[in-house]
Aldehyde dehydrogenase (NAD+) (Saccharopolyspora dendranthemae), 478 residues
Amino acid sequence: MTSPWEYAPALESRELADLKPNYRMFVGGEFVDGGGQPIKTINPATEEILAEVASADTGDVDRAVAAARRAYDEVWSKLPGKERAKYLFRIARLIQERSRELAVLETLDNGKPIKEARDVDVPTAAAHFFHHAGWADKLDYAGFGPNPKSLGVAAQVIPWNFPLLMLAWKIAPALACGNTVVLKPAETTPLSALVFADICAQAGLPAGVVNIVSGAGDVGAALVGHPGADKVAFTGSTEVGKQIQRTVAGSGKKLTLELGGKAANIVFDDAPLDQTVEGIVNGIFFNQGQVCCAGSRLLVQESVAEELLEKLRARVSTLRVGDPLDKNTDVGAINSAEQLTKITELADGAAAEGAERWSSPCELPERGFFFAPTVFSEVHQSMRIAREEIFGPVLSVLTFRTPDEAIAKANNTPYGLSAGVWSEKGSRILWAAQKLRAGVVWANTFNRFDPTAPFGGYRESGFGREGGRAGLEAYLDV
Ligand code: NAP
Ligand code: MG
């Protein structure tokens, strides 16, 4: 179907990212070369090399942990909360001041649409620093008793799907509670973390309070296994999370894990269908579905399934897939060739297992890693697509007849990170929310994030909370 209305390109300027040919690590307040083989980070929408980035070796990890220890012992642990707060406020304001630069940089390195980097990732990252700045001098009133103590040096490892936002989720509470940090960004998206290091320097943060070591998985392994770390925080795959839990076991280090998910998004027959369709789209196509809490399993009451599917396909057909720097783009690039292969394999497998495949008839760019938004119907619980995290723009649709059946199917997963409920009845929503085994349950919305709301999972989705009062516990000796 050709539309009589065509969009003209509305490109954000890539100059705003102020790309440098080389990025160095940040250790002890200085930008330094790493001992490892430098990595080349690419733009997944074009496959061009963006920059060369230093990579740490084990000696660099040692130096970063030692710098964090010194900063903890000599400066940060001695500062009163209201002084720490000033730095956090300053960082939050600098993120706002440099928000266009950060948004374009994030879009180039990750492949996400500029409107998401600009309207979600960067402002929410700033909000996390503002929120935790407010806590820094009020920890006595957080419900953990008077004068709760910090832990020391936090070793933090983050994934590629929300590079700057995951950094903010990790660093803001750590600093607010009086800890110092060594953080490793993902290999495919290191740039915003290294610009954040520049923001720390600009804010006059004392040397060694924040250290960023870039590199691949081995750098992460060296960091989380380092005897000098008092706390380990990880967001990423369940597989690596389990490995880290084994490494940390018996060491006395405090551990929080934010892992994968296979969230159910449940639509009851009394839900307002047009609004629900918007929520389903946001649940699975936001950030190309590369979201741990993505609503990848749609459970629809049988009596409205056909009508809903029709509306959904019509809506998904209008999503604009393409250049992430275009302000009209809804769905950008998949982060890496590897992730694209994984998505393609799982989707092909679902078709082979008998699920009915429908993909948006959009045109995909010739270069770069793109995947058309896809909806599988006739999905059964035994299929891989209904059980495994796909981490891509692919929705599985299952049906149910009774509310009890919906809950049973929703909870039939080893994960337990998030869920959604769509219904007009408040009583039904509250009933469902109590029965769902998920850390976050959204009602008549999906994928909403706020620094005041704790986020985290059950079972194979990990443990510990980030955000809100509950999130402070992960960084305090309580
Ligand atoms: P991952 O392999 O678990 O990577 C996450 C982070 O851990 C990256 O910084 C990674 O470094 C690092 N890492 C890798 N191996 C490590 C090890 N042995 N010890 C310590 N750190 C290590 O996950 P991914 O490659 O980003 O994504 C794979 C899958 O993870 C996705 O398909 C999705 O299912 C899940 N995921 C979940 C979330 C979430 O928020 N819960 C987020 C992203 C991904 P490198 O980048 O250098 O490998
Ligand atoms: Mg990249």
Q: What stands out?
A: The chain has two domains: 14-258+457-477, 264-443. Residues 264-443 form a domain with the Aldehyde Dehydrogenase; Chain A, domain 2 fold (CATH 3.40.309.10). Residues 259 and 354 are 29 Å apart (CA to CA). The chain has a mean pLDDT of 97.
